[in-house]
Amino acid sequence: MRSDSRAAQVVALAAEQGGVVTSRQARAVTSVSVQQLKRMVDSGVLERLHHGLYRLARMPEDVHLEERVAWLALDPDAVVWERLDQPVPTGVLSHRTAAGLHGLGDLDADVVELTAIRRIRLSLPGVIVHRGVLSREDWQLVDGLPVTTPARTIADLAAAGTDAGHLASVVRDALTRGLATVEEVVAVLAPHAFEYGHRALDGQGFLEVLIAQAGVPATMLAVADLVRKNTAAAASVAASDAGQLDVAALMKAVTESPQARDALIRSLAAALGQSTASDTSPDTDIGAGATASAHHAARRASTIGSDRTARSRRSARTAGR
User: Fold this and answer.
1) Checking phi first, is residue 201 left (phi over 0); if not, alpha (psi -120 to 50) or beta?
2) CB-based contacts of 79: which residues, under 8 Å, 6+ apart?
3) Residue 212 in contact with residue 218, Cβ under 8 Å?
4) pLDDT tens figures, 157-209
5) 92 — phi, psi (to 5°)?
6) Radius of gyration over alpha carbons of the chain, in Å?
7) What is the pLDDT of residues 51-88, one digit of tens each?
8) Residues contacting 63, CB < 8 A, separation 6+
9) 262 in helix, strand or coil?
């Protein structure tokens, strides 16, 4: 009877950890013996994944099983909820694995990558453990797993020398989906700009070249800044359309097609027209003037963005000679 009770406790413990448990956790929490764990495997209750690592049998497929097992293996003595209460839970999933979990870019994730705050060697195949400094602001939960934030993921990929094409796709997705701000991306790219052929610490120039390389129009950042400066007016127009117009939505739409960009410019023109109307005499016809002003601003933003990108490319070619 006592053996059945302990087996039930092991099952409950594994279920609380996404269906996975280590032998050390099981012994510490339930006092189960190695022989009892073996009997649970023989009876089909548990499935042995690696030495000291088990999962519940007949569990639904876990698309993140490899990542979950690798993270558990970093600290096999502590249970999941204890580790997640820590500012840094020994280590977190990072680099290409983090990009995949966030759905950023199109990197090949043929191995599981983690970053740990101390040197740790795992015997698991297909797992890479980087050593690095982590703070609570550097990670978040994704499907119950601790994963570096999109901004920290971009920083790690740049530091690892990820080729510019793949890095550009990660940056593009992070920005267009609103998972990181332009300011955050510029800040994390700046320390690595020189290694990629840009002026030292020129995060802005580095970002603009990546944006262009990812196929995002050069006007995107300039138009986004224009919308930020007219937040109240833009929000009033968005509310009338039963949608929230924010920078992330704008950036996503701009990347999709020239038609989407034109539609956004028209919306912005209407927003600016409403804003101007509140400060203008009712007898003054301001609609056409506001629209022309907005289109002029958008054209100017396009010119500025294109000029910046051209300068960044010239700098890159000069540095490579």
Assistant:
1) left
2) 13, 16, 17, 25, 29
3) yes
4) 999 999 999 999 999 999 888 899 899 999 999 999 999 999 999 999 999 99
5) -140, 160
6) 26
7) 999 999 988 889 999 999 999 999 999 999 999 999 99
8) none
9) helix
CA distance 156 to 95: 6
Helices within the chain (DSSP H only): 2-16, 23-30, 34-42, 65-74, 80-84, 95-102, 150-159, 164-176, 182-189, 203-213, 219-229, 231-240, 247-256, 258-277, 287-320
DSSP assignments along 279-293, one per residue: TS-TTS--HHHHHHH
Cα separation of 143 and 258, whole Å? 35
Is the CB of residue 70 less than 8 Å from the CB of residue 115?
no
- β-sheet bridge partners, residue 148: 139
pTM: 0.71
SS (H, E, C) 239-256: HHCCCCCCHHHHHHHHHH
Instruction: Specify the DSSP element, H or E, that contains 143.
Output: none
How far is it, in rounded angstroms, from Cα 32 to Cα 6? 6
- From the list 234, 225, 222, 200, the residue with the least C-alpha distance to 316 is 200
* Dist CA 37 CA 263 (whole Å): 62
For residue 290, what pLDDT is reported? 39
Give the integer Cα–Cα distance in Å for 213 and 230.
28
Residues 6+ apart with CB under 8 A from 49: 20, 55, 69
How far is residue 205's CA from residue 310's CA, in Å, rounded to a whole number? 10
Residue type, 216: V
